Amino acid sequence: MAQAAPAWPRKTRELHNHHMDSTHWNDFPFRDDDVIVGTYGKSGTTWTQQIVGQLIFGGDPDVAVAEISPWWDMRIIPPEVREMVLAQPHRRVLKTHLPADALVMSPKAKYLYIGRDGRDVMMSMHNHHANFAPIAFELINGTPGLVGDPLPPADPDKRRYFRTWLDNDGAPFWSFWENIASWWAIRDLPNVMLVHFEDLKRDLEGEMRRIASFLDVEIPRERWPDVVEHCTFDWMKANAPKVAPLGGAVWEGGAQTFVNKGTNGRWKEVLTVKDSADYERMALEKLGPDCARWLATGELPMAKAA
Question: Do the Cβ atoms of 223 and 59 come closer than 8 Å?
């Protein structure tokens, strides 16, 4: 017997920090075809936004997903950007880094949640954080309305950076475990789809077709090669200003720095055996065996994979 879908999720809290203000979703006027891309961060968010944008716009290489698809709960988004989104005549794509229980969810929208092994997340996060230009800290910490501690500079030691994050529940960002667990808990909702970074790496076209089916998007056969090509890492790297948030202006080296390597396993050269074992133990404790396995490999329990 198939397991019943969970009850419709209700927002139970607000989340505020140097990056996020969850109240921006409280009065968001959803449309029937909105697409929300969710992740913890550095898990394939921009990549998935690019995929969705290419599917919606039929492989148009000039679509600048960075301009049309902002991070809605980022507290420093200026009012004119929000007004632009609300006025968009096309199908809208937005991103969130909120846990599901801090997000107002709508049955009108479709939600894609992307997972990635936390060790890979933090290798990517270190590059992201360590290459912030001074303007990034001015915006993140200097914009009025900051709740909590400001974002500090990145520790240059990658292993120590990882240990701080692991030992302090996501510091200096937000909790990894509660983010993953909250979305895992609603994975059976009909308008929620889990995607894994490793699956995108392993079979990009196959995952894109799965996403297209979920979003009810039909792409003519002759357009598929272009749609897929525009979602390859090489193409995005070559066209980084179109995909990097703010055009890459807040990173040293610009958009090319934001679109970094897109590779997994770099943590093996940084973390000790104990570091890795501590992470795996905590994943099992915080998430349970099925979710921990999915996060590490992309493998869903058999009953959920159909």
Answer: yes
Instruction: Give the per-residue SS3 of the chain.
Output: CCCCCCCCCCCCCCCECCCEEHHHHCCCCCCCCCEEEECCCCCCHHHHHHHHHHHHCCCCCCCCHHHHCCECCECCCCHHHHHHHHHCCCCCEEEECCCHHHCCCCCCCEEEEEECCHHHHHHHHHHHHHCECHHHHHHHHHCCCCCCCCCCCCCCCHHHHHHHHHHCCCCCCCCHHHHHHHHHCCCCCCCEEEEEHHHHHHCHHHHHHHHHHHCCCCCCHHHHHHHHHCCCHHHHHHCHHHHCHHHHCCECCCHHHHCCCCCCCHHHHCCCHHHHHHHHHHHHHHHCHHHHHHHHHCCCCHHHHC
Burial status of residue 59 (CB atoms within 10 A of its CB: 0-12, 13-18, 19 or more)? buried
For residues 165 and 42, give the distance between their C-alpha atoms in angstroms, rounded to a whole number: 14
Beta strand pairing call for 110-115 and 35-38:
parallel
Confidence of residue 25 (pLDDT cuts 50, 70, 90): very high
Nearest to 69 by CA among 43, 44, 50, 42: 50
pLDDT digits (tens, 9 = 90+) for 190-247: 999 999 999 999 999 999 999 999 999 999 999 999 999 999 999 998 888 888 776 5
Q: pLDDT digit string (tens) for 61-111?
A: 999 998 999 999 999 999 999 999 999 999 999 999 999 999 999 999 999
